[in-house]
């Protein structure tokens, strides 16, 4: 086998940041680390890249192995390469983030590695640089949500306008005016109104909607500038 002479070898890890929405709160999925050092402490889903697999395949494999989740939205976020980020060996981590509707995947979730959902505002202390990864993933999520409907990955197939508003308010840690929010989201033309109502929270109820995926793919620009003054909310 030909090798590049005089070059050091290092490890490549994959870490998965999984955001979930249960209809009321935005949460982050964590596991208890099974390796020393920091064994038993809360961690993102992580593992090492195998020689014959791609980064994307490794992310899907690790996520399924540690949580049981598969078929979820995954996107590469960033490579973290501080020489001291892992005290054992020089390890570069390529982070991915995922968006899931918690109820849609709750039956898949494995308890073998003690996977547990935590409120985004009440996270425990995480190992290594995982807190930095989460912060960066949240900034990226806010940026993308201001440009197109990526947050619909966190919702069930049918949802109400109030549910959608709760989700956006949680992502941006702010409050939107109810009427303005409803008007702006409906003006995009990307939602299909359903006949049924959700009457769980009021007698009057709220109509269910679905995302028109065909229209979205053809004209996702309709969601541009959906969030007012997004630059002020991206920090």
Number of strands: 10
Residue stretches low in confidence (pLDDT < 50, at least 5 long) are none
Radius of gyration: 20 Å
> Within the CATH hierarchy, at the fold level, what is the topology of the largest domain?
Nucleoside Triphosphate Pyrophosphohydrolase
Give the strand content: 25-35%
Which of globular, elongated, flat, extended, rod-shaped describes the shape?
Answer: elongated
Largest sheet: 7 strands, mixed
State the distance separating the first and last CA atoms: 48 Å
Please report the number of helical segments.
Answer: 6
Instruction: Provide mean pLDDT, rounded.
Output: 86
What do you see in this structure?
27% of the residues lie in helices and 27% in strands. The protein is built from 6 helices and 10 strands, in the order ββββαββαβαβααββα. The protein folds into 2 domains: 11-131, Nucleoside Triphosphate Pyrophosphohydrolase (Alpha-Beta Complex); 157-225, Winged helix-like DNA-binding domain superfamily/Winged helix DNA-binding domain (Arc Repressor Mutant, subunit A). The strands form 2 sheets. Strands 1, 2, 3, 4, 5, 6 and 7 form a 7-stranded mixed β-sheet that branches. A 3-stranded antiparallel β-sheet has the order 8-10-9.
């Amino acid at each position: 086998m030909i090798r590049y002479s005089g070059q050091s070898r290092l490890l490549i890890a994959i870490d998965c940041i999984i955001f979930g929405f249960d209809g009321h709160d935005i949460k982050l999925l964590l596991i208890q680390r099974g390796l020393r050092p920091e064994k038993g402490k809360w961690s993102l889903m992580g593992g090492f890249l195998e020689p014959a697999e791609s980064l994307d395949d490794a992310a899907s494999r690790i996520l399924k192995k540690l949580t049981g989740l598969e078929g979820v939205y995954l996107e590469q976020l960033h490579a973290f390469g501080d020489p001291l980020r892992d005290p054992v060996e020089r390890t570069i981590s390529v982070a991915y983030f995922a968006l899931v509707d918690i109820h849609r995947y709750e039956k898949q979730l494995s308890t073998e590695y003690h996977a547990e959902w935590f409120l985004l505002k009440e996270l425990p202390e995480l190992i290594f640089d995982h807190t930095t990864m989460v912060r960066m993933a949240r900034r990226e999520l806010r940026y993308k949500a201001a440009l197109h409907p990526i947050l619909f990955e966190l919702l069930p197939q049918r949802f109400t306008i109030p549910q959608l508003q709760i989700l956006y308010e949680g992502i941006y840690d702010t409050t939107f005016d109810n009427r303005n929010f409803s008007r702006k989201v409906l003006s995009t033309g990307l939602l299909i109104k359903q006949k049924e109502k959700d009457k769980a929270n009021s007698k009057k109820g709220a109509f269910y909607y679905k995302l028109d995926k065909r229209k979205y793919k053809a004209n996702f620009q309709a969601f541009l500038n959906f969030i007012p003054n997004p630059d002020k909310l991206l920090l």
